[in-house]
Amino acid sequence: MLINQAPTAGLDDNTPWDALYEQAADQCNDFVSQVRTVTAHDPEDSMDLACAAAETTGVSVQALSGPWSLYTPQDAATVASALFVQLQYSADALQELACAVGRIVERGEAELPAPAGAGQPANLSDALETLRSVSDTIHSLADRHASTTVRALHAAPSSAPMPADAHQTVKAVAALLTEQHDGAVRLNTRHEDGAYEDDPDDGFGCGCDVTMVSGDEEYNFHRGDSERSVIRESDGRKLSDGSTVYNAWETLGTTLRTAHPQQLTDDILRVMAADRT
Q1: N or C: which end of the chain has fewer CB atoms below 10 A?
Q2: How many Cβ atoms from other residues are within 10 Å of residue 228's Cβ?
Q3: Which stretch of DSSP H or E encloses residue 50?
Q4: Is 139 helix (H, G, I), strand (E, B) or coil?
Q5: Which of 3-17, 56-70, 170-184 has the lowest mean pLDDT?
């Protein structure tokens, strides 16, 4: 097994809670950089950006819904920092929306009725006032809870055995399978110790794989073509030259070369368990 990470030091008292978001955003891919270059000049820009923000938030929900969407408390701290910033921006956007509607009313393009009385359905005036109230509530929520949430998560001890490269990932999975699987497990090393140089752009990892036996079936866990897969030996077809080809395999739920070893182990165990039922 890999050595567990040491507890992470908490954020310095002089470091704001949104510093994690700012740091992560600076290190992100080109998507964040592209968004930062966008300027809005007209209604079409406003509508496009609002829709893009809604879609991005929806995708974030989808990403976080996975059982292994975050590996460590520090991952969660960074996401929490970003989400609280997002809440604040959303609150500001609601305020600006109310102001923009006010300008439309001033131009005579819409009417702003008096607030609805008791027992009457809410109208546009009530809606705009609600937007302002919700904006204040969101800012108040962030003021009360953002710093505490982010700092507590960032300071929490992280016990995840995080691999340093693709080879360490395979070794960690083999160790976990040895502990958690009833059948035989064998790490098949394809290179000398220290001879592998990790290449983040190489979709085939280090070449090492893991063989597992479950009942009468033998399985193999490996990485290839930027995917992590499990194959069943019984699905193989022998060729005349003695090699074996496979037309069927199980693709695991993550493609990261340094994916969480327990996530990969859980996926492998699920594949073998499903075959026994």
Answers
A1: C
A2: 26
A3: helix 43-64
A4: helix
A5: 3-17
Amino acid letter at 249? W
CA separation for the pair 129, 99 (Å, rounded): 11
What is the residue-wise DSSP string for 172-217?
HHHHHHHHH-SS-EEEE--S-TT-----TT-TTTTS-EEEEEETTE
Helical pair 73-106 and 124-155, crossing angle rounded to 10 deg: 160
In this structure, what token pair is assigned to residue 98? Answer: 């109310």
Residue 263 to residue 162: CA distance in whole angstroms: 11
Q: What is the CA radius of gyration of the chain?
A: 26
- Tell me the pLDDT band of 161, cut-offs 50, 70 and 90: low
Q: Is the pLDDT of residue 6 over 70?
A: no
According to DSSP, residue 66 is labeled: S
Q: What percent of the chain has pLDDT over 90?
A: 55
Band of residue 133 on the pLDDT scale cut at 50, 70, 90: very high
Mean pLDDT to the nearest integer, 161-177? 89
How many residues appear in the chain? 277
The DSSP call for residue 38 is -
90-132 tens-digit pLDDT: 999 999 999 999 999 999 998 888 888 888 898 989 999 999 9
- List CB contacts of 207: < 8 A, sequence separation 6 or more: 190, 191, 196
Other Cβ atoms less than 10 A from the Cβ of 220: the count is 18
Q: Write down the pLDDT at residue 43.
A: 94
β-strand partners of 245 = 237
Predicted confidence (pLDDT) at residue 2 exceeds the cutoff of 60: no
* Contact residues for 213 (Cβ-Cβ < 8 A; gap 6+): 183, 184, 185, 219
Question: Which residue's structure tokens are 């302002």?
Answer: 132
The span from the CA of 254 to the CA of 229, in Å, is 10
